[in-house]
Amino acid sequence: MDAADIIEIHQLLGRYGHALDHQRWDELAGLFLADAVLDYTRAGAPEVFRGAPAIVDWFRGVTHPSAHHVTNIVATADGPDRAVVDSKFLVPYTRPAHHPQRLAGGDYHDTVVRTSAGWRFAEKVCIKRWQLTPGDQTGLGPRHATF
To answer: How many domains does the chain have?
Structure first.
């Protein structure tokens, strides 16, 4: 894996966040292999989703944070056209409809594959690690929970 591959993988994670933030479902679907696996069960999903259509259908129906931020991206080659990618995410829930308003974060563990269209997700795993509920929403001041 060379520097260009690493940049393209970073771009893939960035495109994922932007597609979700702007609800561009066709673009989101194009970031996954047709038979990709999405496991967000440790972030509240009811099941593991298989296939780009099922993944996008699930994302269409969930409450999204105000934005998706991905950082600390480390891509490690796992073959000539495959890489394992570990990163951190931070998501603010700050819209009026978000109750309680909060920040949450955790880990993404992805497997990505080089295709003729560029790098794509073969598997995406999300693990929620923490949540901070700032302010005095409960009368108790800020609360921090770990998962």
So the answer is: 1
